[in-house]
Structures are given as structure tokens and as C-alpha cells.
Amino acid sequence: MRETILSFPDDCLTRGDDTAVVSKHGLRVVRWSYRSLAETAFRFARELEARGIGHGDRVLFWSENRAEWIASFFGCLLRGAVVVPLDVQSAPDFAARVHGQVSAKLLLAGEGIERHGQLPPRLLIADLASTLARHSAARYQPTSAIAPDDLAEIIFTSGTTAGPKGVCLTHRNLLANLAPLEREINKYLKWERFFHPIRFLNLVPLSHVFGQFMGIFVPQLLGGEVHFQESLNPAEIIETVKRHHISVIVAVPRQLETLRDKIERDYEARGEGERLHEAIAQAENIHWLKRWWKFRRIHRRFGLKFWAFVAGGATLNSETESFWQRLGFAVVQGYGMTETASLISVNHPFRLSRGSIGKTLPGHEVKLSEQGEILVRGNNVAAGYWQGGIKPLTDDEGWLRTGDVGALDEAGNLYFKGRSKDVIVTAAGLNVYPEDLEAALDSQPEIRASAVVETTQGTEPFAALILRDPQADAEAAVRRANETLAPHQQIRHWAVWPEADFPRTPTQKIRKGEVKAKLDGEKGRGGDKERGGLGEGESVIGSVIARVSGVAPEQLKSSANLSTDLKLDSLGRVELLSALEDRYQVQLDEAAVSAATTVSDLERLIAEGTREATAAARFPYPHWAQRFPVTWIRLIVFYLLLLPLTNLMCRVRVRGREHLRGVRGPALFISNHVAMVDQSLVQAALPGRFGRKLAIAMEGEKLRGYRHPPGHLSWFTKLRLKVQYALLVSLFNVFPLPQQSGFRRSFAFLGETMDRGYSVLVFPEGRRTEDGRMAPFRSGVGLLPTSVDAPIVPIRIDGLFELKRGRKYFARPGSVTVTFGEPVRFTSDADAAGIARELELRVTRLGN
């Protein structure tokens, strides 16, 4: 039986080289074994010891989800140090206030976290491997005994308007919830081996205890894998689930809603939306196997291994829960709070109770007060709040008042009704729970999201609505919602929310205080809030645009043009789209966003939550070219035909090859572009370990034209172009790198290619030279070096243009030179445009 959670690193050692963590950094996927996790934890403990950090000292964690976070977490606990996790989106002043309370000795900082004078010395998580390399990986024996009641972490749960409030969690608190889960999991391990490994895609921050349970502890209990990714784009989530054979998605309810929206939008785009909703309605009472077969097309999109969602952190809309369950997926909900170490109750994955937040975990006690408030008592209740020490948070009998209103049925299932502070008491003394009204509103097809708060005068609900279509009839939607509500619940006051989304916490809960403040502020200015929107104003997505463009939010107007007003080039638009997708969890097509696009156009696209895909945006990404038997055929043809022919026509002189001796693994080669045979010359000049596994980025629009010839061409010309495409892809392993739109998909394919062990050759000029001089590098190439985590090798080809100009097909040996420069790496926070200029300069200098 576990006494502390320090038994988990020992479990990691027993699992050895099995994969524990898979995370996507930029465009690359990094895998960590269980052994690597444990050894890094031991090294981190020794690093803390060298820094004089020990029992009871606090360490701030301010980083994105990654394997190093988990290893460092255990490393702190081995030293008896207390982890203080911060959400990666926390503001610097909030982090400073937290540090002011806990007096941390060290800051473990993620990407993009700048130095701050009010914070402790920082250790970059990206540099952790090199920092810890000097320490032994042998098992670390704690220098002082770690007791069950020792603090493991302090999690701060607020800080937006009031002072930060830190919840103190001990080893005993965490184990109180882990122990019953482990006992139940052990009953099913004999069946798990048929599906091993269980893979979890964890979309919840590790800075939250729910994210820790499903990202650190539960996967280890199953010997499974946990996958992390930064993007919350629903299309990318679905793609990740299928590509990596994910079994379970761990998410907050908001993410389940955006995935549902994605499925529904795709069906509507094909004209099948009504048929989908009819099929879902008919699936209510059929067996889950029949549901699986009925919706097999959707299951194929996620991959046949995916079967369940685990949702927590907020209340899941009943419509969304029903949607996924009727499709044949399990939806496991739990209930808890930071003060109860994440859990109070949880649904059993094989004995689900629809609409319920589960049954109380063994060892916990739950009761309802006279007002229906949920009270909990047990070892899972936190030791207290941090106030220069630990201040108890329970009453004299050990009960914790959760502030939530609930109900219990005869079977012991717990139902969440809402926050007690959000309950609206009508003039007649009747209680109105905003969650009930929001469920009625969200079920209307016109409404994408809603938030119900109390009117300024009190006693009545006020609904803020986000519409799927700005032209939708909101009044009709509210009227239909009222038909499903009791008389005392009727919604008489409502407004269309002017932004693409409500303000939310890191776990995607709506900040209703901010919603109410904005509604009250607009009302104070005399706006009519019973019908219509809140009025026009400055850009509502200004904070995201300002971060990318550098223009102050207050200076942004909806009419601002991305190119002329905000000075965003194609690279800047790629960065902006990615930031908007992650913030609002929608998918935007680059073809719908051009230099002429305005801020209001973006707002409309986000509000509609739709993807205006066009044929011009579809580029062929040939995964088949990197699989057997094409890989073998390409290798045979290269050594028996292409290499001898290249050497016969042009035996190149190779310079700087010694720079490649220390390069291991895939590399990114950057070269000037002279003629059609550039890739053959570079491939012939490369050492065999690179030449044998090389992928080549080609002008995307041209490659797409080969694969999908224009309709006005003759059948013979179309056939010739398609054959040309097949030969290029199969013999040279080329893939498209577009010049106008589609960059992100191309970059993603490039990352996947390097994950398969291929080096990549890119011509950043985007076209072949016309006068022998090198053209400026396109700025988009600057995004690659910081995203691929690989050495960048500059290459220059000289002497070939003279042959091209003279239309000569054979050259004297040594008249053409291929020069390799010194490999270079760039830090993750380097400026992309600056990187492009630096690479251009390096290639230029190779010609001297």
C-alpha cells in the first residue's frame, strides 16, 4: 500500500523502456520512456540539492505540459520541496504575487516565459537536459523522511480580482483519491492487456490537479501513455487521436463542445446535417455496438482504438454528453475541486449514469445542507490554505463547504445544480439555477454558447448569447428555450455577446463576474439589453491580434486591414491564425484569410466557427511515399540509376562536408535554388546516412497542378502531368510547400516526416533563379528552425547557372560546387523573420 506518491518514480523504473509520455514540441514529436522519467527525476533532485533547495522549500512551475514537467515534479518531491504550479497563461503580476506569498527558491520556466525582477532565479525547462547532464541518473534516496502529511504542492485557484489563494495538498490528500482508483483499475488489468497500451490525450494543464491526475498518475497505474499537445484546434485533436491511436481524451467540457461543433459543421458542409441529427435522435435506446456500427464513419475519423472522453474541471452540457454517448463513445464525468484534490465523486466508465457526476469515492463522506449545498469530509480534503503557513479550511467537524448546489438520488448518484453564489432567487422566493437555463439555451440550433447571470436589480436571470450565425434569430431561440422552462425560470432579459467567446479560466469555465460586469457597464451607458447586441466598438479579438502584430489593443478597429494597417505578411498571418484557433478552439482556413482580410472578417469567421475550405487550399501530402515498398524502390533506383547518371552528367566538387560529421539524426538543409537538378546534386553530395533518407520541399502550387491538372487540358496532358507527379513523389520523396496558403499543413507534414527519421531539403527562395543571383528568402522559412528541433545546415550551389544558361547537360568534373556550411540551431524565442535573414546571409557567405 502506498504511503506517499514517491512510490511512482520506483514504478517507472520497473516499466523500463515502455513509452510514458509523448509530446509535440513545435512540429516534432518527442517520446519519453518510463525509465527516462525516473532518471530525470533523480537528476533533478540532485540539482535541487546542489542549489540548497530542500524539505519545505517552494519551487514555482510555470510551463506548458511536457515530460520534463512530470520528471521535475517527482524530483521536487524526492527532495521534500513543495511544487507551486502556475498556469502557462498566468500574467506576470499574478506570478509575482504568488511568489510574494510562497517565497519560492526556484522558477522552472517554460517557453516564452520572460525574466521578471520579482521572481526567483529561473531554470528553463527547454534547457533541462543539458543542465542535468552533470548529475547521476542513479536512484535518489531522500536525505530526510517524507511523511504522508508533508506538503506535496500548493495550487493557487484565484487571483483575477482578489488576492491569490493557495490550496495546500499533502501526499495523503492525493493518495486518498488515487488509492480507490487504483483498486478499481486493478480489477480490470487482466483485460487491459488486450488493448495495451492505453493512450491518453491530455488537453488539461498539469498546473491543475485534474490535469495531474489524468496526465501523471492514472496513466502510470495502467502502464499507459500520456500524450500532450499545445494546439486545441478540434481538427488537430481528431488528427492526433487517429494518428497516435489514442484511447481516451482528457478534456474540460468546453473542448467536448468544440469537437461536437466540428463534427456537426463537417456534416452540414456536406448537406448531411439533418440526417446526422435524425440518426442521433434514433440512437437513444439502442445497444452501444449498434451505435458504433451506425456511426462507424465518425469512429473511423477518430481511429478504431478511441472509445472514451474523461471530462472535468467544469459542468458538461447535457446535450453534449448525450451527443457523444449516442455516437457510441463513453463519457466519464467526475466532480471535485482543488480543495478536494480534484475528486469527490466519479462515474464508473463501465457503469455510467447519464447526467450524473458519479458516486462518492470510497473513504469520502458527502452530505447536502438544508440549502442543498454539497459538503464533503475525508482525507482528500486539503490541509488548508497557504497564508505564510497552513490555515485550515474545514469547520470543527471536518466538513468542507464546496459552495456548489447538488442533489442525490436513491442510488447514491450525485447531480450538480450550480454554484450557490450563482443561484438566482426570484421575487417569489424561488431558486433559479443558471445551469438549467443555459442547458435550455444551448440546445437551440442558433446558439453556440450562453451565460446566465443575475440582472443588476437582482431576482431575474439575464442571458448573454453567442450565436452560430450573426444573422440568426436570437429572439426565436430564446422563445423556444422558454417553452421548456418553468414559469419562474423564464428568460425575459438577454443580449447577444459581442465577442467570439466569453472570458474563461484556464480550464475553460466562464468568468461570470466579468460577463456580468460588462453587461452592467453596457446597461449603464443606456444600451437596450433586452433585444439585440451590445453595440459596435473596438476589435473584440484585439488582445490576440495585438500580441502578434504589436499594435496596441485600444488602437485596433474592426476595419483594420491585416496587410496595410497591421503590416502582417504571410508569415504573420500564419502566426495569427494559429493563435486565434488555439484561443477560440475553431478551425480557420488560410485560403479565406488573405492580405485584404480585415479584423471584422476574422471576427465573422470565428463567430461562425466555420471553415470556408476551397479547392485551391487542398495540397497533396503523399504519406505513401514514405512507406514500403516505395522506400525500397526509391533506394534501388537512386543507387542504380539516379546517382550514376548524376555523376556522369555533373561530378560535383563538395566542400565543407566535414561540418556534417557531428550531425546526428534528421537535419534541415537550406539551399539556394538554381535548376531542376538541384535536389539530385545535393543528394549526391550528402553522406549516405542523409542521402538515403531525404525529403524535398517543392513549390506547392506547381506540385498540386501536377496532381490535379486544370480541367481545360487534354486527357493526354492530364495523364502526363499525373505521371510526372507520381515519379517526382516516388523517386525524390517531394512534398508541397505552398507559397500562398496551406503553410501550416505543409509544416505539420514536414514535422511528421522528420519524426520518421527523414532529413528535409528546403529551397527558401521559393523559385529558381532567373539571373544567377540569389533571391531573398521567404520569411516563412524562419518558422521552421524554431519548430523542428534539429540542426539547420546551410548549402550553396555554385557553377550550375552557367550550364543552365548555356543549355548544357554535361559539365566538366569540379565545375559545379556544393558547399555545406556549419550547422546552426536557434532558440525557441528567436524572431522568425530574423532567422530567415540570418539563414540567407549564411548561404550567401558560402559562395565567397
Description:
This protein is α/β, with parallel strands linked by helices. It contains 29 helices and 33 strands. The longest helix has 20 residues, at 630-649. It is globular. Residues 524-538 and 610-617 have low confidence and may be disordered.
What are the segments in which pLDDT stays under 50 over at least 5 consecutive residues? 524-538, 610-617
Gross morphology: globular
Note the gap between the termini: 69 Å
Report the sheet-strand fraction: 15-25%
Tell me about the biggest sheet? 9 strands, mixed
> How many strands?
33
As a whole number of angstroms, the C-alpha radius of gyration is 29 Å
Helix/strand-derived category reads alpha/beta
List the helices and strands and how they pair.
Elements: H1 7-15, E1 19-25, E2 28-33, H2 34-50, E3 58-62, H3 67-79, E4 82-86, H4 92-102, E5 106-109, E6 122-124, H5 128-132, E7 151-156, E8 166-170, H6 171-186, H7 189-192, E9 199-202, H8 209-222, E10 225-228, H9 234-243, E11 248-251, H10 253-269, H11 273-282, H12 288-294, H13 296-302, E12 308-311, H14 318-326, E13 330-335, E14 345-346, E15 359-360, E16 365-368, E17 373-377, E18 384-386, E19 390-391, E20 400-408, E21 414-419, E22 424-425, E23 431-432, H15 434-442, E24 447-454, E25 461-467, H16 474-483, E26 493-496, H17 512-524, H18 542-549, H19 570-584, H20 599-608, H21 630-649, E27 653-655, E28 668-671, H22 678-685, H23 688-691, E29 694-699, H24 700-707, H25 715-732, E30 734-737, H26 743-755, E31 759-762, H27 785-788, E32 792-798, H28 800-805, E33 817-820, H29 832-845
Parallel strand pairs: 1-10, 3-4, 3-5, 5-6, 9-10, 9-11, 11-12, 12-13, 25-26, 27-33, 28-31, 28-32, 29-30, 29-31
Antiparallel strand pairs: 1-2, 7-8, 8-18, 13-14, 14-15, 16-17, 17-20, 18-19, 20-21, 22-23, 24-25, 32-33
Helix pairs in contact: 1-2, 2-3, 6-8, 9-10, 18-19, 24-25
